[in-house]
Design a protein that fits this description.
Length: 157
């Protein structure tokens, strides 16, 4: 996310916390800075590690208390791509109508937008008497490297 958008989204979250009368502690600030400075999808454990690089006092409990606030604010979306943990999408605030394709071997997540998918969703919704508010599409596939070599070099990283 470009720096100007990053600042805008970060401020929206700080305003959300203020509205809820929640303090912005040093550890919580480190989590906020971490979340809104990446475009990568992340797990709670990844966020913990990254935030602790900024501030060693960030605890697992603070991460797990802050994640529901991030999703409640509508600026981060919790994603279930299967597996044992949820992912969090920090790109939702600025691009709410994007989709995901996930390599079933290495788990690499690629975001994409498609006008055709959006049009089809609107058309189907209209035919059924609905109006689209949001949509989620995630495709599980095998990446090019897996197709050629039978495994991804990115697996486990």
């Amino acid at each position: 996310m470009p720096e100007a958008a990053n600042k805008r989204v970060r401020q929206r979250f700080l305003d959300f916390l203020a509205q809820k009368k929640l303090r912005v502690t040093g550890p919580r600030r480190a989590i906020i800075e971490t979340v809104f400075s990446t475009q990568d999808h992340f797990t709670a454990e990844q966020l913990l590690g990254w935030a602790q690089q900024r501030d060693r006092s960030v605890s697992r409990a603070t991460v797990y208390r802050t994640l529901p606030l991030l999703t409640e604010s509508g600026l981060v979306r919790e994603m279930d791509f299967g597996g044992n943990h949820k992912f969090y999408d920090p790109n939702y605030a600025e691009r709410p109508h994007h989709n995901h394709i996930i390599c079933q071997d290495c788990g690499k997540i690629i975001e994409f937008e498609s006008r055709k998918i959006e049009q089809l969703g609107n058309e189907i919704s209209r035919q059924l008497g609905f109006k689209v508010q949001t949509h989620r599409l995630h495709i599980t596939a095998t990446c090019e490297e897996f197709q050629k070599l039978g495994a991804c070099s990115k697996r486990g990283s």
